Every structure is written in C-alpha cells, then in structure tokens.
Write a sequence for this structure.
C-alpha cells in the first residue's frame, strides 16, 4: 500500500532532470536536485535545489544521505560516494556497479565481450603513446574510431582517425581504438527495469546524426528498418539489460552495418535523448517509466500513441551569449508539434537548448516538418 | 519574431494553475503566482510565488504591475484592480469585462438573455426575503434551482428547492431562481480565443456528476450523444464565445434536457475541470491553448488523440487531515491511465486532490476502469 512517496534526489540538474521533474510534478513526488551550476535548468522546477560538485565524495554523500532514493541524469558522478550510500540503505538507481562499468568505455567494451554481446572489435591503451606505438607496429589498423575511456559525450571524446597525425590534438589518457564500422543506420532501444526485475522495452528508434557535430539530430519512431532487424535489435538490447541487471532506464545504442550486423555501440543508464519523443509519443514516457522504476511501481505501457519524430534544437555555431530565439513561432503553426525549451540562459555552439517532437500518422511528413523547423529556427545570441 | 517570452502572472495557485505551469515549464516560460494560501499547490512549481489576498485591490495591483500579462485560475479576484492594470498596459486575459459578468450569476444570466443565447428561465432577487415573497405570491414556481449570485463553486451556492423551508440555511444575499430543468445530460465545450480573434474549439465532452456532492466526477470524451447534438452544442458554445469576445479559455457548460433542448448553464473563463483530459487526450491541451492565447501565438490542434475518460479524485467523506493515499498503485496496473496528484497536504471531504485520465480506443472500457479506480482508491487521513 502506497501511502506517500519517498524522497528522491537527482544528481545533475540539466534537461534530463527537468523532464523527469515534469513527470514527478504530475504526481507531486518531491524531487531534490544537485548540480555544480547555480543556474542549472532544474533550479526553478524542483522542490529543493543544491549547488555542489557531483564528483566530490563528501558532497554527494551529504546530498544523498537525506534521501531514500538517488538517481542520476548525468554519468559523471562520484561512484565511490554512491557505494557508500548503498551501504547505508539509500537506494541508488542505477546501481554503482552499473555506473562504474558505463563510466569507463574500456570496461564497458570488456563487459560486452565477457557477456557475449555483439560489439565492434576494439583494443584498449593506457596512453596515447601506447596507441601510436601499436599503429606504427601495425597492430592497430587505420582507419579506426578513437574514444577517450572516460566522460566523452555528445560527440566529444570520439573521433575517426585516418592517419596518426590526427591523434595530435587528442587527450593523452586511457583510450580505445574501435574497429571502423560501415554504418547503415544507428538505432536505440530503451529498456526500463524495476527492483522486482520487471522489464519494459520501448520500440526501437532510428537515430540520425549531424555529420559535422556528430550529435544526434533527429529520432524517428518507428525506424525505417525491417521487422526482422527490429526484433533482433530488441533481443540484443534485452540481452544487454539482462547482463547489467540495472534498475531504472538503460538506453542501448546500436549500429546496423552494411552486412546487416547489429552491434552494441554504448549504453546510458539514464533518460536518453533518443527517448524524448516518448513524452508525447508513448503511453508511458521514459521519464514516467524511470519514476515508476525508482518507486518500484508496475511499469507502464511504452507503446506508440502515434509515429513521432524528435528534432534537437542546438545553439547556433555563430555566437555564444544570452539566448535569443528566432522564428520559434513557426512551430506553433504545425499541428502535432510539441515544443520543449530547456530554459538555458546562455546559448553556445551545439549546446542542446531544446527539442521538438512531431506526432503525425505519416512519419515522412513528420520528418519533413522536423527538417523544415530545424532549418527555420535559430537559437543564438546578439 | 518571438525572441523571448514575456512575464506572465497567475492569480490563484491551485491545481488549474499548477497544470498551466506544467505546460509553461515545457517551454521554460516564467510564471509568477499569487495565492492567499502559503501552502498553495503551485508554490514549488512556479518561478516566483507570492502570498496575497486576491480580493484586495492594492495587493492585486502590486502583483500585476510588474508583469506583462496577467491571467486567473480562480474567478474570485478583485476586478477593479484588473481594470486598473488594463489601463496601465498590462494585458489581462480574461479581460475584466468578462470576469465582471461571470462573477455575478445574475449578470451572467442577463447577458445570455440579452445576447439571444438559450438558457433556462430565471428570476433574480436582491435578497432571500424578496424570493420568499415571490414564492408566496405564486410568482416563482416550485421546484426551482436556487443560486447565490456570487462565488458559488463545485456544488456550493447551488440548491434545488422543493419547498420554502429548504431556503432556510441558505445565504440571505442576491440570488437567482432558475427554472428546474429535467436534465438528460450535462455537456461542456471549451473554446480558446487569442488576441487576434482566432478561435479553436475542443470536442464536446459529457460531464457526469456525483449525485450527492453535485461535483463533476467523470468526463467522457467523446460524449455519448448524437452528431446532431454535438454540432448544436458546438455552435451554441461558439455563439457564447463570440458574445463574450474573451481572450483565453471559455468553458461553456450546457444542459441537454428531455426535450432535446440545449441550454447554457454557466461559463468559466479559465481552465476547467472538463478539460483536464486534454493534457493526454488532445494534441494541444487546454493549458497549452491558454498559454498560446496569452502569448498571442497561433492556437494548436485540439483534436482527440484517443477517446478519454477523466475521473476526479476527491477527499473521502470520513476524515480531514494530513493526506494519505490508499491503493494508488492500482492505477499503475492499468495501461493508458495517467495520474495527476495536486500535492495538497490536507485532505478534506470532497476536496479535489487529483485526477486520472484514461486513454482507451474503447470509451466504455475506459469508463469502467475509471469507475473501478474511483471505488478502489481512497484519499483520506489517519
């Protein structure tokens, strides 16, 4: 019998936290948020906002100790502090053991290998010098994908390397050299799992990336792939979820290559950009599913209400500074277009400032409208 | 060109305000709220919360003067203060002239009469003694519906009178005696109108009342009425909207009587309980439409995404005190059931504490689930 909701905290106060709060507000579930930025997006939306360094052991413990449940909306948090909280009866979802693997791309790749999960071939190196040596000795073949082992995101910390000189500007630390995959499509499957082990799987979506920034730009649901591939992608994601035994969300990013192979690229144990469409497009959004998992409630129905296309709105390359929105009103002339603005006061090149989800019975129509809006709206500064 | 959102204030901080804030938060539109209750529902959700008496002239002016746009979520506000704000270039939607008519049920009835809008016959009286005299002189026929002229709501200030003695406990002030209507169904049509005069009309819904409390208990969309009645109801509501020339929402409550006559009961120039279903059930909810109207943006598509049933969750008759929710988890086992809890700390008999919207292709199925949840969930106190 649920008589009242327990106290939940979120580490991180960005747009993912904000959208979780939007859902929590519907149920009047109180949420505390901590972020290093005193102007974080969540600031005005949560019950209780604290400024603090998420990588600092004591700060995270102080924040979490007052709560029943702690979750994350960013992976860059102090895992040792989470371990301490877990030992002291705070529920930490995703669990520290999951986050520990995900935070380190070398560990993550080894996890896939050890669990028999299809992923691209890889080599790991303690330093950039080791990698360069391996290339010279012809043990690492060009081209390959370089990845920093820790805390890359949104196209940072990832680079295609065609020749040794391209490594020069990159970080010297631990890294991966991943087999270059001839990608036909990138897909994502989000799975939610609660404390009782119940799981619920969102439909496979297609991710379309901006070729310059390497950021995801559009999400198409349903994806333009065969039923066979859909089913294989779902099965693969379920295997990943089963292996992690996570509680909460797990977004599984997949490559489909020219040989029709499906390979796990990486995972995120939190709300994911590829699931924003579900706020309007699914019966139970990724945020509602996460909240249910945190509260150990029965999971909802992640089925599609309508075909959906999501488009990210990012800061223009031209300028940084106090944000100005141009042509935003164009959105309001398109039926079934749902605007989300994150309320970030400063626009920077490629900074995620908002998104639009378009519901339309005709997916191609929604995609065309999304492309039109992407070209028309400008988020910039004076 | 919309470069940034203006500052909007809401007079009233209850659940209607909260749901407007939920929508505003998606666009990061800052909202200020004022309510007399320091624990009002909106308190933790808005950008800026003030405690103040909405009926106090100076308090309302002080609040509104700092804003570009002022709206209401409750009708009991100081209209003279709104007039002052209008003269001082603050946009007040609904306009003071609309609110002035709506606040007084005698004026409202006369407005319908003067504008040729079908409504039940009525007589108005300055005092209860005048009414009693009229009954004795056989100028007012029993039975009739007694209504206090000002500030009745949710079944308060309204009573069916079968004999004179039933008037005894009632207020002595100005009142109406309305013709008793043999009601077959109660319907509602919500219309949104923006500053440019553009209007958008939500589908007609059926309102089912609790026979004891006289509060609306269920909303069914679509309603179980003929296409002809639907079309007539929509036309009648449009005529009412046109007559008021309101900006923002206008919920038009209608009676359908045994002779298949449609009569306007009353209106509310704000978000309305009969439109809660639209948050999940329509492409653009009543809250989104209102926000668009406030910002003078093109109105959205109010079409139905799915048949919907809304059920109100009210405080149990047994007890008042700090709220306890029982069997809430039953909601989470029903697919397409969307919970809204308003976060009121104190439960009181018949107090609106939350609602559930059920989306289902089969309306009857949704209605049965709504009835099951209504019977199963208990909101009470220790």
């Amino acid at each position: 019998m649920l008589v009242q909701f327990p106290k939940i905290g979120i580490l991180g106060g960005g747009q993912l936290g904000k959208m979780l709060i939007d859902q929590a507000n519907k149920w009047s579930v109180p949420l505390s948020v901590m972020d290093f930025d005193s102007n974080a997006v969540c600031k005005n939306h949560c019950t209780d906002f604290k400024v603090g360094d998420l990588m600092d052991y004591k700060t995270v413990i102080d924040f979490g100790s007052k709560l029943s449940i702690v979750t994350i909306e960013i992976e860059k948090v102090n895992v040792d502090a989470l371990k301490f909280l877990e030992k002291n009866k705070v529920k930490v979802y995703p669990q520290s053991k999951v986050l520990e693997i995900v935070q380190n791309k070398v560990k993550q790749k080894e996890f896939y290998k050890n669990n028999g999960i299809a992923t691209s071939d890889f080599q790991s190196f303690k330093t950039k010098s080791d990698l360069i040596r391996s290339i010279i000795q012809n043990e690492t073949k060009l081209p390959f994908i370089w990845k920093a082992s820790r805390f890359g995101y949104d196209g940072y910390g990832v680079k295609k390397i065609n020749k040794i000189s391209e490594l020069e500007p990159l970080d010297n630390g631990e890294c991966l050299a991943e087999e270059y995959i001839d990608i036909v499509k990138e897909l994502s499957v989000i799975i939610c799992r609660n404390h009782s082990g119940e799981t619920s799987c969102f439909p496979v979506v297609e991710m379309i990336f901006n070729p310059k920034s390497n950021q995801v730009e559009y999400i198409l649901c349903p994806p333009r792939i065969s039923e066979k591939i859909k089913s294989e992608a779902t099965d693969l994601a379920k295997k990943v979820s089963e292996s992690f035994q996570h509680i909460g969300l797990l977004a599984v990013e997949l490559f489909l290559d020219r040989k029709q192979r499906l390979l796990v690229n990486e995972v995120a144990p939190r709300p994911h950009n590829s699931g924003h469409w579900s706020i309007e497009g699914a019966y139970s959004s990724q945020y509602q599913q996460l909240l249910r998992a945190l509260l150990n409630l029965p999971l909802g129905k992640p089925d599609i209400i309508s075909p959906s296309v999501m488009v990210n709105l990012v800061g223009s390359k031209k300028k940084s500074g106090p944000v100005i929105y141009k042509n935003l009103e164009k959105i309001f002339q398109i039926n079934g277009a749902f605007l989300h603005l994150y309320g970030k006061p400063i626009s920077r090149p490629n900074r995620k400032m908002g998104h639009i989800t378009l519901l339309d019975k005709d997916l191609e129509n929604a995609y065309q409208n999304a492309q039109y809006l992407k070209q028309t709206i400008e988020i910039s500064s004076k």
